[in-house]
Specification:
The chain has 18 helices and no strands. By secondary structure, the chain is mainly α. The chain has one domain: UbiA prenyltransferase (Tetracycline Repressor, domain 2), CATH 1.10.357. Helix 4 runs antiparallel to helix 5 (58-87).
């Protein structure tokens, strides 16, 4: 069942064509599962688009995409280094390269440095304000793997980390931080809590046995209501961000497709069906695309980026 829910892609697709010595490193950085890179990328792309820079700074969208892939990979490597003992006790994660011994800790460190250097290349493409904001995320990133040991809401800390690109993308276009960018970031934090709670439903039983805390366990029988609450909060804060850029009901209408798609996830969620949880979690890449289109329309029509 777990193999079906979270496919082991080592023997599938492009990963299968790689040399056996390379494959574990691809899996360690989750390069075989691009959903995480999409989720890290979208907040930055939203900020660029809503700030009016999607056309003028199209190159920035590409740099942020490269940074999302590299830094998501680096984050996964670091997370697995910290969690290798816990991962070995959870059915869905026990075959991860570090937990299974397919990659040594020393080799993982080398891989982490290599991915971080790619992130550094992206960093130098940004203006000074965006660089400072990006570097300020490092403390939160380093602390994240430990949150599941000390709080029932590690998803909230992930929200801080996985939304950070919104704080980077806005000043990368405008050179300054503004209320619309901050509202976009706050809404994205709520979005992350919602989708990562859905993701955590896959591991509720194993997490209980391993002593791993999560919002899915904390919410218990109220998990669907909790997910919907965070989704509504995200929609409200995003609407406020769009309104700050263009105070027009049409701006809010642009948000409607993304809002409906997001609420589809929560309203129809089946908490005791791990396959359904994974499907709805992965659907957030389409939520990201729909919100990007909304930001593109609103930011472009307002000429906000100057």
């Amino acid at each position: 069942m777990n193999d079906r829910i979270v496919p082991d892609t080592e023997q599938r697709g492009l990963v299968a064509a790689l040399p056996a010595s390379v494959r574990p490193f691809v899996l360690l950085a989750r390069l075989d599962r691009p959903i995480g890179a999409w989720l890290l990328y979208w907040p930055g792309a939203w900020a660029v688009a809503l700030a009016g820079g999607a056309v003028r700074r199209w190159d920035l969208l590409l740099w942020l995409a490269l940074g999302a892939v590299a830094m998501r990979g680096a984050g996964c490597v670091y997370n697995d280094m910290v969690d290798r003992d816990l991962d070995a006790r959870v059915a869905r994660t026990r075959d991860r390269p570090l937990a299974s011994g397919a990659v040594s800790l020393r080799a993982a460190w080398v891989w982490l440095v290599a991915l971080s250097l790619i992130g550094l290349v992206v960093l130098v493409q940004l203006n000074r304000t965006a660089q400072i904001v990006a570097l300020a995320s490092l403390g939160a990133v380093a602390a994240y793997p430990f949150m599941k040991r000390i709080t029932w809401w590690p998803q909230a800390w992930l929200g801080i980390v996985f939304s950070w690109a919104a704080l980077v993308g806005w000043p990368a276009v405008t050179g300054r931080m503004e209320a619309a960018g901050l509202l976009l970031y706050a809404g994205t934090m709520a979005w992350v809590v919602a989708y990562d709670t859905i993701y955590a439903l896959q591991d509720v039983e194993d997490d209980a046995l391993a002593g791993v805390r999560s919002s899915a366990r904390a919410l218990g029988g109220h998990v669907r209501a909790g997910v919907i609450t965070f989704q509504l909060l995200a929609i409200g804060l995003w609407a406020a961000a769009l309104w700050r850029v263009r105070p027009d009901p049409l701006a809010l209408a642009a948000l409607l497709p993304a809002a409906l798609h997001l609420l589809w996830q929560g309203v129809g969620l089946r908490p005791h069906d791990p396959a359904d949880a994974l499907r709805r979690f992965r659907a957030n890449r389409f939520t990201g695309l729909l919100l990007f289109l909304a930001c593109l329309v609103v930011g472009g029509s307002a000429g906000y980026g100057g």
